[in-house]
Amino acid sequence: MKEEAIEFLKNLEGEVKIISHNDVDGICALAILINFLKKKGIRYTYELKEVPLKEVEKAKTMIFLDISLDNALKFISENSLIIDHHQFNKKPEMPFYNPREKDPKSYIPASYLVYEVCSELENMEEIKWIAAVGVIGDKGDENSEFCRKFIDDFENGEELDLISDYIFSATLVEHDKEYKILDILLNAKSSKEVVQNPYLKECYNIIQNEISKSNNKIEREGNIIFVEVISPYNIKSIIATQILEKNKDAIVVAYSVFEDSCNISIRTNTEINLGEIAKKVAEFCGGDGGGHRKAAGARIKRDKIEVFKEEFISEVEKFKNQ
């Protein structure tokens, strides 16, 4: 519950270690929490990680942001807090804040949740725009009426949308540059300053150019569209979203094959639960997967992609026949 998270932050002392997802939502959530900790004079260390987490060195006090409960529980210490918005089955016996506890269909990205909790203890209004960028980056405004109203309150919505695209592009262009992005957010005095950042602009232009020239191979099976995205950059989620915009009732499975793995992004507007299916099919293939109802992802070995396709089609059919 939110009260548990507020109480945890209120009583923080010593040094805290923060583990956050390295996507737009996770980076923004971390930036907000760091601003809060600075106001409180709390010492901190942090790591931005790909999910699912594979390895984390434990500390006495830990906070996990935008990391699914099942994943984070493998690495918590005795004094830990999890702020997240992914699906989960059972509330843990520890401080934990996820709106899905009360409403399983809730979709409020972690960046807003961190902003909400920190605002109960400190005035965070000057960085409210960072929460908005995180919400946009995680498609909160497209999946939640609450988030849509939150974003609509900003007069510079287009600017915030562009910042989200800038950050996402930068994470694609260079590996491990999430920390540079975080520093840009932490040092920015306003959203306009981020929009004018030359590094982020350059990354955005690189990705836009790559999207325009990317070579994609498309297969169809009923309303399922499989697309192999051939690019040195991990632009599959962008391609999946673009294809879905033109095929409103489809399930789009975009994948890129690399040296030893196949990364997959799945998008839909249908009522199917992609998060559950992606997790089940990926595990069947010996990989990892999961996500939300309308947006999910997976990582499997490169030689398992055809098996993944077959099993994914089968699971979708099972869902339709329920």
Task: List the defining traits of the structure above.
single chain, 322 residues, inorganic pyrophosphatase (n-terminal core), Diaminopimelate Epimerase, Chain A, domain 1, 2 domains, six-stranded mixed beta sheet, five-stranded parallel beta sheet, 11 strands
Describe, in plain words, how this protein is organized in 3D:
By secondary structure, this protein is α/β, with parallel strands linked by helices. The strands form 2 sheets. It has a 6-stranded mixed beta sheet, sandwiched between helices. A hairpin with a 3-residue loop joins strand 10 and strand 11. Helix 2 packs antiparallel against helix 5 and helix 13 crosses helix 14. It is globular, with a radius of gyration of 19 Å.
Structural class: alpha/beta
By oligomeric state, this entry counts as single chain
Which word captures the global form?
A: globular
Distance between the termini: 33 Å
Quickly count the domains. Answer: 2
List the SSEs and their pairings:
Elements: H1 2-10, E1 15-21, H2 24-40, E2 43-49, E3 61-65, H3 69-72, E4 79-83, E5 96-97, H4 110-119, H5 128-137, H6 140-143, H7 145-152, H8 157-173, H9 178-187, H10 191-195, H11 198-213, E6 215-221, E7 224-230, H12 236-246, E8 251-257, E9 262-268, H13 274-284, E10 288-291, E11 295-300, H14 305-320
Parallel strand pairs: 1-2, 1-3, 3-4, 4-5, 7-8
Antiparallel strand pairs: 6-7, 8-9, 9-11, 10-11
